[in-house]
Amino acid sequence: MSQNSSGPAPYIYTCTRLRVRKSKLLTPAEYYRMLNMGLSEITRFIGETEYQKEVEELATSFKGVDLIEIALSWNLAKEYQRIIDMTHGPLKQFTKTYLERWDIYNVLTILRGKTQGFSEGKIKEVLIPAGSLNRTMLDRLLTEESVERIVESLKGWHLYSVLQADIATALSSGSFSEMENDLYKTFYADLLQSDKKGITGALQFVKFIKLEIDTLNIKTIFRMQADAVSKASKDLFIPGASLTLDELEQISGLSNTDEIIDALSAKIRNEPLLEALDGLREKKTLNEINIDLTKAQLDQMERLSRIHPFSIHPVLVYLVKKKYEVANLRAIARGKESQLPGDVIERYLVI
Amino acid sequence: MSEIEIAIATAAGYKAIGAGLAVGLAGIGAGIGEMAIGAAAVGAVAENKDMFGLALLFTVLPETIVIFGLVVALLLLFT
Is the Cβ of A324 closer than 8 Å to some Cβ of chain B? Predict the structure, then answer.
């Protein structure tokens, strides 16, 4: 494994660049302004921000909400690639490993798109080639005619074994959700192994990943409660963070929201998440719970990046915030296209 | 050479060593300080060209310490 032998300067350089980039992300005031705009105004507004290049490039081929959506996807992929290029040593390694989550997203999108009969072009529009599978590889997968051939083409991919093990069940049941769960579980298990590889700064990386897993598991518990899933299942949770699978299973078996929050609060250590959990005692919709938990996660990530200013935290915070910016803009564009009022769209934004 | 002359020569030698250390150590300290500031400044300017002036100013701030070292060296040598 490559080690950082050139002192703290590369960390300081990269972390400062990403802090400046983070300061360029859209502010809450800009989101509120957009909520009062029409779709064409939003397109123009986005075209004047960091997305200008993509909007101008695609303006001749696409219009309206499609233009916004594709420009956002392109920008996200390009931005992530730029960050991989910008980072050095262990920071690069962590960034690349973390961004491999987009491989799972891309592969599943292709598999789902192909089984549902979408055209290559349509699937390509929503792919985000930010992981280890580059655009050429994804194009190759898109040209494959059957799902089996796609899986075969992914033989060298590090999650191929999971794909191969689950593909038969996925095809017979017509649902890729179980495969998705397994892929993400293996992905997170790999990330958690980083600190055992002796890379400098891996401890902070693992801390970040554990926070993400905790948030995901808590979201799953509330989702199970909202969907009245009576049978608690360990398979739905990601192991390796603050809560063990047994604890998660036990908590998800509780029917009362207050009991769930009490049980979680006894195990969770970080303050923003505890505050968010406390706020969930009042009746909220599942979407509001999700948004509150995501905000708490981002809050904690920000805290970590301030406590460790020259570590992997500022890089990861930017990656996550950028992802939510794109998700917010997509929600506004789609919401406006569906003629939803501003206050309804606002409920779906992570601001 | 008398003992007094030897003592005067030794004192002058120590003064020169002191002056050298004052400037040298101040320079090393400033260099270490500037490493972090310089890296951050280059990062900030790479993202936003308008920050060049401010970044340059912050980068050379530790140089003031070298001036203190120089003043101490001059005082040692000429007083």
Answer: no
Tens of pLDDT, residues A83-104: 999 998 889 999 999 999 999 9
Chain A partners of B38 at a C-beta cutoff of 8 Å?
A: 9
Q: Which residues of B touch A12 (CB under 8 A)?
A: 36, 39-40, 43
The rounded distance, in Å, linking the Cα atoms of A252 and A225 is: 7
* Residues in chain B within 8 Å Cβ distance of A85: none
Say yes or no: ipTM exceeds 0.85.
no
CB contact under 8 A, B43 and A15: yes
| H-helix segments, chain A | 9-23, 28-35, 39-47, 52-58, 64-86, 89-99, 101-115, 120-125, 135-143, 147-153, 160-173, 177-192, 202-226, 245-252, 257-267, 271-279, 286-307, 313-337, 342-346
Q: Which of A118, A23, A147, A138 is nearest to A73 (CA)?
A: A138
Evaluated on CA atoms A14, A309, B25, B56, the torsion sign reads: positive
Phi/psi of residue A157, each to 5°? Answer: -70, 140
Q: What is the pLDDT of residue A3?
A: 45
Rounded distance between C-alpha atoms, residue A248 and residue A233, angstroms:
9
pTM: 0.89
How far apart, in Å, are the Cα atoms of A200 and each of A193, A206, A293?
Answer: 13, 12, 30
**A296-306 residues labelled b (16+ CB within 10 A) or e (exposed):** bbbbbbbebbe
Average pLDDT, chain A: 88
For chain B, state the CA radius of gyration. Answer: 19
Distance from CA of B67 to the nearest CA of A (A): 25
Whether chain A has a CB inside 8 Å of the CB on B46: the answer is: yes
In the prediction, which pLDDT does A177 show? 87
Query: Which residue, among B47, B50, B51, B52, would best test binding to A if mutated, counting the most A CBs under 10 Å from its CB?
Result: B47
Residues 6+ apart with CB under 8 A from A149: none
